[in-house]
Amino acid sequence: YIGDIGSLESPAQTEREALENWFRSLTSERPSPKFAGLPAKQNSSFRIGAPNADYWTAEAWAHVDGDAAEHDTALFCATNAVEAARGEVEEAKASNVLAIAQFRLGYADAALATLTTMADTLAEAFGGDRREWHATLLANKGLMLETLGRGGEATAVYDDVIQRFASAYEQ
Predict the structure, then answer these.
(1) I need a labelling partner for 75 at 20 to 30 A (CA). Which of 35, 59, 63, 129 fits?
(2) DSSP assignment of the chain, as one string?
(3) Contact (CB, 8 A) for 89 and 133
(4) What's the gap between Cα 18 and its chain centre?
(5) Residue segments in the chain with a per-residue pLDDT below the cut of 70
(6) What phi-psi label fits residue 6: left (phi over 0), alpha (psi between -120 and 50 degrees) or beta?
(7) Residue 64 — φ and ψ, nearest 5°?
(8) Which residues pair with 44 in a beta bridge?
(9) DSSP characters for 35-81?
(10) Nearest to 157 by CA among 125, 112, 127
(11) Which pTM was predicted?
(12) Per-residue pLDDT, 75
């Protein structure tokens, strides 16, 4: 049972607060279910685990591609994805969608910083997945710069991607 987000408790409560309350309810201790004919264990409880980074990343993508009203939800989910990430590849996936949500909400500088920070983390990475995400983050940074009318900076990023990764595609 995942539960539902529920309704807003007051007109002043924001969608973000409702989502945060829903998330807290997922990770709180709940009593053990009782099964007919089976004795209940003493002091037993089960814990619904917090959603993992893949869950939050998928939720962020579902909302970032929606209309502008859903971008706050995408930002919330992407932030949780980054926090839940275990390893550089999960963090790169989460950072990518976080940057897109930030960008769509008008936080271009934050989006570019998110991409730059994660790309810098992966700059010396070995392994196909890490290199692929490094290239993806840099390419998205170039796209954002181009969208902002900063063509010279975008070209420099694209040139960097070609210089770093051209040999990988020649093989």
Answers:
(1) 129
(2) --------SSTT--HHHHHHHHHHHHHSEEEPPP-TTSPPPTT-EEEPPPP-HHHHHHHHHHHHTS-GGGHHHHHHHHHHHHHH--SHHHHHHHHHHHHHHHHHTT-HHHHHHHHHHHHHHHTT--SHHHHHHHHHHHHHHHHHHHHTT-HHHHHHHHHHHHHHHHHHHH-
(3) yes
(4) 19
(5) 1-16, 18-48, 168-171
(6) left
(7) -70, -30
(8) none
(9) -TTSPPPTT-EEEPPPP-HHHHHHHHHHHHTS-GGGHHHHHHHHHHH
(10) 112
(11) 0.70
(12) 95
Residue pointed to by tokens 């020649």: 170
d(CA 143, CA 124): 22
Residue that is written with structure tokens 């201790």 in the block: 29
